[in-house]
Amino acid sequence: MVFSSSIFLFAFLPLVLLLYFNPLNRVSRATKFFVLCTAGMLGIMYFSPEDIPVSWIFYGAVALFGLYLCKDWINRIWNSTERAARNLILLIFSLAFYAWGEPKYILLLLVSILLNYGMGLWVGKYPQKTTGKWLVGVTVLANVAIFFYFKYMTFVFTELNEAFSLDLPLKNVVLPIGISFYTFQALSYVVDVYRGEVKSEKNPLKVGLYIALFPQLIAG
Predict the structure, then answer these.
(1) What is the mean pLDDT of residues 130-139?
(2) What's the rounded Cα separation, in Å, for the pair 128 and 1?
(3) Most buried residue among 50, 72, 74, 178 by CB atoms closer than 10 A?
């Protein structure tokens, strides 16, 4: 599984935390140097040279050098729009995480985000009204149809073929990672908007993060 791989645990997750909490402007140079030296020594003690792929060393060095070059730019973003920058970083890494595990279904996740973002805005104009109820029904139908196709269509076609001697074409549909979770997570947002429990969110990045945050996708 992607989330239990060594790359996720020792590269992806630490990088997300590093960028999210941005320690670059919170600690002194001496502390940074000490942490880097300690991490390097522990790495040398834990791994033997033959255990470390050359590509890891190369890409790790490039990533560290890139962060060093961008540190002033990163700090300016944090000082001006810290929360927005953090949300953007989490969304980018969440989408990257999903593309890493299911590259061919990243478009499906983006469609779900855009669909429910748009329907949330539309439903928000008619909270607890008949028009809003119809819009919620359309949203539920669209989301459940996508979910049903990927999770149950092969099973249904198989049962129909056996029960009625049909020859319906069967496709080996691979279940996208986390589709159960992010489908109903998206639905809960639109329903809450209709009920008036939350206001419709005008920022698509926030809706995207609510639906696609990668620790939640693992749960799904």
Answers:
(1) 93
(2) 42
(3) 178
Sketch the domain layout of the chain as residue ranges: 2-86, 104-219
Token reading at 87 = 């949300």
Q: Are 87 and 206 in contact (CB under 8 A)?
A: yes
Sequence-separated (6 or more) residues with CB below 8 Å from residue 177: 2, 98, 101, 102, 105, 217, 220
Banded pLDDT at 124 (limits 50, 70, 90) = very high
The stretch 168-181 carries a mean pLDDT of 82
DSSP string, the chain: -GGGSHHIIIIIHHHHHHHHH-GGGTS-HHHHHHHHHHHHHHHHHHS-GGGS-HHHHHHHHHHHHHHHHTHHHHHHHHHHHHHHHHHHHHHHHHHHHHHHH-GGGHHHHHHHHHHHHHHHHHHHTSTTSHHHHHHHHHHHHHHHHHHHHHHHHHHHHHHHHHHHT-------PPPPTTHHHHHHHHHHHHHHHHHTSSPPP--HHHHHHHHH-HHHHHH-
What mean pLDDT is predicted for residues 172-189? 89
- Position 33 confidence tier, pLDDT thresholds 50, 70, 90: low
- For the chain, the first-to-last Cα distance in angstroms comes to 13
- Angle between helix axes 106-124 and 204-212 (nearest 10 degrees) is 130
